[in-house]
Amino acid sequence: MTTDSTPLLEVEDISVRFGALLALNRVSLTIPRGEIAAIIGPNGAGKTTLLNCVSGFYHPYEGAIRFAGRDRTRLRPPEVAALGIARTFQNVALFRGMSVLDNIMTGRILRMRGSFLLDALWWGPARRQELEHRAFVERIIDFLEIQAIRKTSAGRLPYGLQKRVELARALAAEPQLLLLDEPMAGMNVEEKEDMCRFILDVNGEFGTTIALIEHDMGVVMDISDHVVVLDYGRKIADGPPEQVRKDEAVLDAYLGVAHD
Amino acid sequence: MSIADAALDTFPKRVRANAERLPRRIAIREKDLGIWQSYTWRDYFERSRRIALGLASLGLERGDKVAIVGDNRPELYWAVLATQALGGVPVPLYQDSSEKELAYIIDHAEARFAVAEDQEQVDKLLHLRTQVPRLECVVYDDPRGMRAYSEPGLLSLAELEERGDKFGLGQPAYFDEAVARGRGEDTAVICYTSGTTGTPKGAMLSYRNLVEMARIATEREGLGPDDEALAYLPMAWVGDHMLSYAQAIVAGFAINCPESAATVLADLKEIGPTYFFAPPRIWENLLTNVMIRIEDAAWPKRRLTQAFLRLAQDLERRRLNGQPLPWLPRLLAPLGQLLVYGPLRDNLGLRRIRIAYTAGEALGPDIFVFFRALGINVKQLYGMTEASVFVAAQKDGDVRLDTVGTPMPGVEIKISEAGEVLFRSPGVFQGYFKNPEATRQTVDEGWIHSGDAGFLDQAGHLKIIDRARDLGRLADGTMFAPKYLENKLKFSPYVKEAVTLGPDRPYVSALINIDLGAVGNWAERRGIAYTSYTDLSQKPEVYALIEQEVARVNRSLAEEDAVLRGAQIRRFLILHKELDPDDEEITRTRKVRRGYIAQKYATLIEALYGDRDRVAVEAQVTYEDGRTGTIRADVAIRDVSTR
Asked: How far away is chain A from the Cα of B144, in angstroms, using its nearest Cα?
């Protein structure tokens, strides 16, 4: 069995190859429970590939991924989701024609049990179950302050709100590990501030461990406990934000700031 | 017990009586987690008692002030009652106030305690505590995001109530004794007026003021425990304090707190209130929504709706003017009721309305007629904070277009020689807190100087023309009433705000704010691309659109009003930014601050009276987090034809 001291996620020496391109080259990282970890790096550094490996979209050809102490390298996405890993996407991937509420309800699907017949009749356990799930979803709606758009169809929302709905859907799965792929891309300052607050609140109130990819350095330095820097598929730095900020390899590769 | 019971001279006593008389009746509903949660009068009383004992355990003394800040929440209304039960004085504050504004009022009111809704308000309060050391304790309702706070003197409402329970065990008679010591002449609440001029002033209202005026209004309108109201206006506004607190307690009706400010219109529809109080702003929003939806409808529906709306407005106008009603429209009216008015009313959530007041600024006559034509009993109310709201209101069956109705029972009105409206009533306040100078300027031998110019007509109806000091004359002596013109402009769904200029000038001109929702929608339908508010506001097509609206106002002035027909709008421009309370251009209750605007936009105003047709301008804007920035734009000026 696992204890709280076992890191929630351990990635050990994984490599991913697309044809001749080595997208990840023996990358390792560890995310302890309850932490907010940021993965940064220039375009094409392999950040999203890393996230895709964790969520089971890609499988590394070497190395191992352990979740809560057990090897999970070869799982498929639904199995990963059932383990308690949820994610959002770099490009919003909502059901555009469905209401916000229904979109978030889909995040509960893995937790629903029932038979086709009972569900169709909306009777007995099926009804009770639906009400419980709805109550849970309402808590998330309240948490993310999206009451006013509960019944709006997702496709009609501005981009910033769609991102928030995507986060809501991921939270509906009650994940232990939440993977956020550029949660603040394309947002204005105010939306970014809101999103930062929500991420910190999710981490603080639900104790969810969060791994996020982000380009906005200010955001990364402000909210993460620990930063991993990738460049050309390699890990070049790993540590608390203050330390990474001063790391010369990082400055060279990513920040591009003159230093002497 | 009757609502006139003299022994029930304070709100804590009345709520206790309600809890005994109507224990299972709903007093407050709040939409929380998607569901309307109900609280009875007994819950109201019990929760307030626990909060009161908690405050007592923290050392709240008689006469201490308690700042209350947040959206309309049951817990905050209970905090008001709890404070009053101990002989303290609640000071409700505007929840969207900046830290500077909050600090001024909390300091001026000498508040020792504050009850806040959530983290947003707590952050402001904790921050301003460095400037206002007297503020000892901050209590918050919503624990969300508060886990990392460990400041001294900060505790949650749940913790406060637990403390209260312990305190109550030790001193079981404390609460009842404290309530029994309350007297009708004690100060019940201090309402800070948002102030179109200068710093806010704290109007002290006694229990007698509020209870008496609430009773008079309740009896006049026949309100009772079966009524429902929506508590959605800022708690700091005396209108909400009167309706959602004083009248709800006196009449025993239920109030409903919406889920959030953004969901008010949806919640309105779910609740379907019978008693509704709205400033012109809300009526204008409702009207804009209707207009947009009509424009978006397919043409047969649109034509049908527009035709029936025109018909109903024409009938209503005749009815209000006491003219005979032609037979054809009268025959068609039931059909309109079935096809248009009923569904529309239902859609807006106004189907069950028995009494709807409009107050604050004057509501434009066209908007007024529109809602009355739909069969909604909208009535003008004339009131002031200093009068415990009610001065005059239109009576059912005696509603006129151009008056604010007859004086409320117990209210005497007279007009000063300068044409200013003066009144005297049981609701006349105790004075401004720590500001005898301002009190002397406002009250003279019991008569309040309203600052409004007006007169009583032969039928005893009060007619308000404008703010006494705003009423002006053009350089050639023509009478000019700015608000009257602005309301006419604002009837257009495309015009959000308007400021007219004229005194001592050769002609009238206007600064106009477009409504981003309505004009944006209009532009989209015509395939006009825009990038921002500033960009949209300066499109030639938008100018043409607004020009038509201004021409319409000029036409109606020429047709309707002999006195004011000389004051037609000759030139106008569209402002490149929205007037915003954060930039101090309008007050939190959305009254235009003329003096400030005249100063800030002096270059624009000069250009309106020059002969150029473009002018470059810069404006400071304040973002919500307090930072400032500058918007630059090239603003166009247009001439309009007059008659």
From this structure: 8
